[in-house]
């Protein structure tokens, strides 16, 4: 528990720091500095190894931090959506569908889209009928 909480705290801080424009500018500055020092070190293997090793280590560690952040964000969003579905008139059967396969989710999504199109068409027909009725009522009172 302690490690998980500490890792989450570190992950949050690193995610916040790396997502800032100043951090990106610093990374660009480091690469420019490295490139400028190339002639000084005669573009040696050691000079190349410095940036290759550094970027490899940073990339390797960032994969885990990004994945952790994505997992937590996804779980938090899912919990919020589940609560909204539970608390509203929406269908509670959608709670937990994130555990289905991609094909099953695609099937449900297609069904929801078809249902939404049908409801939109019905609403448009109702609006059209209401406008016609309003025009007829206006004519009748004129």
Automatic annotation (TrEMBL):
Q: Which region ranges are annotated with the description Disordered?
A: 119-142
Q: Name one GO biological process term.
A: transmembrane transport
Which residue intervals are annotated with compositional bias (Basic and acidic residues) in the record?
A: 125-142
**Which superkingdom heads the taxonomic lineage of this protein's source?**
Bacteria
Ranges annotated as spanning the membrane: 21-41, 47-66
One Pfam family, please name it: Iron_permease
Q: Which UniProt keywords apply?
A: Membrane, Transmembrane, Transmembrane helix
Protein name as it appears in the record: Low affinity Fe/Cu permease
